[in-house]
Design a protein that fits this description.
3 domains; about 40% helix; Beta-Lactamase; disordered N terminus; about 625 residues; disordered C terminus; alpha+beta; single chain; 18 helices; Phosphatase 2c, domain 1; six-stranded antiparallel β-sheet
């Protein structure tokens, strides 16, 4: 039944959805090999263990492979096939995964030419989507033999497809930003070529053209109209169906002047409407013309000269800019050209405001997509908050993560990995590296579930260098473990140049979990073994992990600031994790010039291993060696 649905969806044209094809075209990806898409294909081949892995993007009449590993022959050289050879088209048509153990026995796929000509027998494909939910293609694992796909393989492929989709969305966001910038640049160039490069034009640009909010547009229009053009009144009208709606008028809201302009009647023969309808500048240069074309409200302002210019937009006309003078005025061609310039810059200002808001929205959505949904773990409560350095961008290089690991086969055991980290840098570039680093750490921790955090970080650093990512930063990676359903919790961690976590017991006593190693991502020549540290976590205790933006301030001693944090946590030991991280961010996040992450883990279940284990962390600690060379944090 699923295969019949897929076939019907393809036949109905789901593959040829115009919006989907437009997004695919904007991505710039095609049959040429792309380094990042190739990286995803290689990870699928290596980690899932298949002979062929593809990043397949479905066009209207063909599929192309910007990422391909193991595809041989002419199709491998061309990196494209017709849809007659495509399983991935069913992923696009259905909008969901396609998992097939043996395509030769499938009633729909058995006749697909990919079976005899490409040797496709077992197939697992996960959808690759853009920010609007359009399925652009599939991340596919292919075997030449029948295969029963393991749940872990499917989950791994799904995670890689999620990361690949994020990369596609970032590309589309960059394309949109570049398109908007190019359009703005073309408008600016056209205006500069049309007018003399005078101080007056520069003043118009400075007052209106670079606005980032509607309030700035209003202020700029007032400055230009009154100061530069010498107009006594300025109003901006927007097309609203069959009417013109007043957007900007002189005077403070609620004043008699503003109310009079709001009552202005603009009929079809008035200059603003004619400027919109005829898409050209319109003016009346005498008192009689103004009296004839406007209502009594306009005559009350004693307007003796009026000029209205259309406010342009790529999709038509947004509205009209109208200037009025109380004295007589003759309009030279240069005067009219200057008013047109102001109208054009007004359009550019609103376009720029829209672009800024769009960029902020995309950035926020991207960062939210990268933030982890904290798991529910019996015996633990987790809460986290993220605050970017730049509230307008809402992207940065800090992260937090938490996820359960396999319990090792002992009934009642629980193992959870948590991490916080900070990529060197800010804004979009750091956020991209952060997403890759966090995903690599998560995958490595899962792959090495039975090994200590130091081994996980070492494996990650090897891949970071070997794959050419070369991301650098700081991180704490911790493994929280409980033996048996009623056993005590303990934490083993490794610190890669990061601020030390704080352990708070139920009575409010605190300890800095010291053990500061080198940053990750440093050159090979300075590498040295990392040490694991260990501490018992009594019931009611809380581990607080954070990034340096929380405690680092210019001109403030770091140790003093960290001490203040410990005292604050001591006073809020009874707060639940959600309330605790909110309080910490409110108290210490104000004025931060860097990204800030706060992650709190509260031990709520299971008793202590012995009566002495609940004595709390105290205020000092030392690192002592234990069996196997791993140090323990002895409280």
């Amino acid at each position: 039944m699923a295969e019949e649905t897929a076939a019907a969806a393809v036949a109905c044209g789901g593959v040829t959805d115009p919006e989907r094809l437009t997004a695919l075209q904007r991505s710039g990806l095609g049959p040429r090999a792309d380094a990042t898409m190739q990286w995803f294909a290689e990870r699928v081949q290596r980690w899932v263990g298949v002979p062929v892995a593809l990043v397949s993007l479905i066009r209207a009449d063909e599929q192309v492979f910007p990422g391909a590993v193991g595809l041989e022959g002419p199709f491998g050289e061309a990196r494209r096939t017709g849809l007659s050879h495509s399983f991935c088209q069913h992923v696009v048509a259905n909008g969901g995964p396609l998992i097939v153990g043996d395509a030769r026995t499938d009633p729909v796929l058995a006749t697909n030419l990919a079976v005899p000509e490409l040797g496709v027998v077992a197939y697992a494909g996960m959808p690759l989507t853009d920010g609007s939910g359009h399925v652009l293609g599939a991340l596919a694992a292919i075997d030449h033999e029948p295969r029963a796909w393991a749940p872990a393989e499917i989950e791994l492929l799904r995670d890689l497809a999620t990361a690949c989709s994020t990369e596609l969305r970032l590309r589309l966001a960059r394309v949109d930003a570049e398109t908007d910038r190019a359009r703005r640049d073309r408008l600016e160039l056209s205006l500069r070529e049309s007018f003399e490069r005078s101080q007056l034009l520069l003043e118009v640009s400075r007052s209106v053209g670079d606005s980032t909010s509607t309030e700035q547009v209003r202020a700029g229009l007032a400055d230009v109209a009154g100061g530069v053009l010498g107009a006594d009144h300025v109003a901006l009208f927007a097309v609203d169906g069959d009417d013109l709606r007043l957007l900007v008028a002189p005077g403070t809201e609620g004043t008699d002047t503003n109310r009079a302009w709001s009552a202005l009647e603009v009929d079809e023969q008035a200059p603003p409407w004619r400027a919109v309808r005829e898409q050209r500048i319109v003016f009346c240069a005498t008192r009689d013309e103004c009296d004839e074309q406007f209502s009594a409200a306009a005559r009350a302002f004693d307007l003796q000269a009026v000029v209205a210019a259309p406010v342009p937009d790529p999709r038509g006309v947004l509205g009209a800019l109208m200037l009025g003078w109380s004295g007589p005025r003759e309009f030279s061609p240069a005067d009219l050209l200057l008013v047109n310039t102001v109208a054009a810059y007004t359009a550019r200002a609103f376009d720029h405001v829209d672009w800024v808001q769009h960029r902020v929205t995309v950035a926020r959505e991207m960062q939210q997509a990268m933030l982890t949904t904290l798991p529910e773990v019996p015996g633990l409560e987790l809460a986290a908050r993220y605050q970017p350095a730049d509230g307008r961008e809402y992207v940065g290089g800090d992260w937090y993560d938490a996820f359960p690991l396999p319990d090792g086969g002992h009934p009642g055991d629980a193992v959870v990995t948590v991490s916080v980290g900070d990529i060197i840098g800010h804004e979009l570039g750091a956020a991209i590296d952060m997403g890759k680093v966090r995903s690599m750490l998560r995958q490595t921790a899962w792959d090495r579930a039975g090994e200590p955090p130091s081994a996980v970080v070492h494996a990650f650093e090897t891949a970071n260098t070997g794959l050419g990512l070369d991301a650098a930063g700081t991180a704490v990676l911790a493994r929280l473990e409980r033996r048996g359903e009623r056993g005590p919790w303990s934490m083993t961690w490794v610190n890669a140049g990061h601020p030390p976590p704080v352990l708070v017991d139920a009575d409010g006593r605190t300890a800095l979990l010291e053990g500061h190693g080198r940053l990750f991502g440093l050159p090979r020549g300075v590498l040295e073994p990392r040490e694991d540290l260990e501490v018992a976590l009594p019931a009611g205790s809380t581990v607080v992990l954070y990034t340096d933006g929380l405690v680092e301030r210019r001109g403030v001693d770091l140790d003093e600031r960290t001490g203040e944090l410990c005292r604050f946590l001591s006073g809020h030991a009874a707060s639940d994790p959600d309330a605790l991280v909110d309080a910490v961010l409110a108290e210490f996040g104000r004025g931060a010039g860097d990204d800030v992450v706060v992650l709190a883990v509260r031990v709520t279940g299971a008793g202590d291993a012995d009566p002495e284990a609940g004595r709390g962390p105290g205020v000092t600690g030392r690192v002592t060696p234990v069996i196997g060379g791993r140090p323990a944090y002895d409280l």
